[in-house]
Design brief:
Blueprint: E1 2-3, H1 24-45, H2 64-83, H3 92-112, H4 136-150, H5 158-179, H6 183-186, H7 188-197, H8 207-216, H9 224-241, H10 244-250, H11 257-286, H12 292-298, H13 304-322, H14 326-330, E2 345-346, H15 354-384, H16 386-392, H17 394-412
Length: 414
Amino acid sequence: MKLLLTLDNFQHGIGSVGDLPIPFETVLNVSALVIVLTFVFLKISWKQSVLIEKEVIVEQKLPILGKVFGGLILSLLILPGFIGNEEAKTSITPLIIWVFLWIGVPVLGLIFGDIYAKFNPLSLFPSVEEKASTVWVASGLFLGLTWFELVWRKPGNPTHIGTVFVLLLLVTTGSRILLGKTSIEVDPLHLLHHLYAKLRFTVSRPVYKNMLENIANLSNFKGMEYFILLMIGTVTYDGLRGTTFWYNLFGSSTLDMGFSTFAFFGINIIIISSYRFACWFALKVSGEQQDLNKVSLLFGHTMLPIAFAYHVTHYLSLLLYESQTILYRLNDPYGVGWNLFGVEEITINYFLTPVGLWGIQVFVTLAGHMLSVILAHDLAIKLFGHHQSDKTQYIFLLITVGLTLQALFVLSVP
């Protein structure tokens, strides 16, 4: 059997800054200028909040067909690692979690909404659920799941994935049945997909305004902003650790799991602390007597487009190319010797040039950060008034520009 691409060796970088169609410094300068000009344009032309608050209802029920499909997905996530003997490069298990559930289904959510909620494999068992209020459990489990993906040495090993999903199933199901928690409060994958579905652009006209209102009306469950910031922080770590810059800076320490764990948590702490400082600064400058935790939660949705941009640009190549191995991997889904499709080898069709892929990534990165600036500006007007809005957003603008430059650096430097 022959496989040309694996989940363990695929890189997200373009190869070399010398391969870029324009100088790398120009890319950074123009991108930073675009974000700043967006901020200035909003100050001049967007003088009152136009996004309308709407009641948000989170559906939790699974249809019968959804439960059947969810059960099949769960079996492919757990059983191959315990009853089969396939490696990560041939098993369907890592493809399902790290390609389809992690990036493929969220991208489909831009068109069809929250698809994952229709077949959620971690919500197969019925429970009496109370009204959702916090997402602290989901945030903690998300941090653990991403640590497993990015720090653990064998995140593609079917046995390791199976073990992780058994634990996830026990924690989420136990929390729902024994504590009355809703799926979105305790299931990190459900919350991830729910958030990305908020950016759905197949909405009624005017599309742009309705999409912004859809994002702005994010459920204000306690801890929501931290979950979104973790989405940004974990991908930031993943991007930086894959560059030669990271290795040149820390050397062989990058291969140590202890150091990687420290760096993983450290980057997330830096991003969360920066965000909290921006919220504190906004209150300090405005002179408003509002609770910092409340303001922090309210501004959480403004970071969602950045999180989505990071997620898509970082894992897009994995989705486009690794997904082509699905028939090869499904040939023996449980690793017990089946030969369902007679597929002995597969060749990956790299239908996009590196520069073409890089162009898409740059566009999505800039679009996400510009949306973030727009959402933050509208909310700042609503909370602090138009005359105060620009001053309260200086630190948010600085963070947005910094995240933009960091993302472009990761995408452009090997």
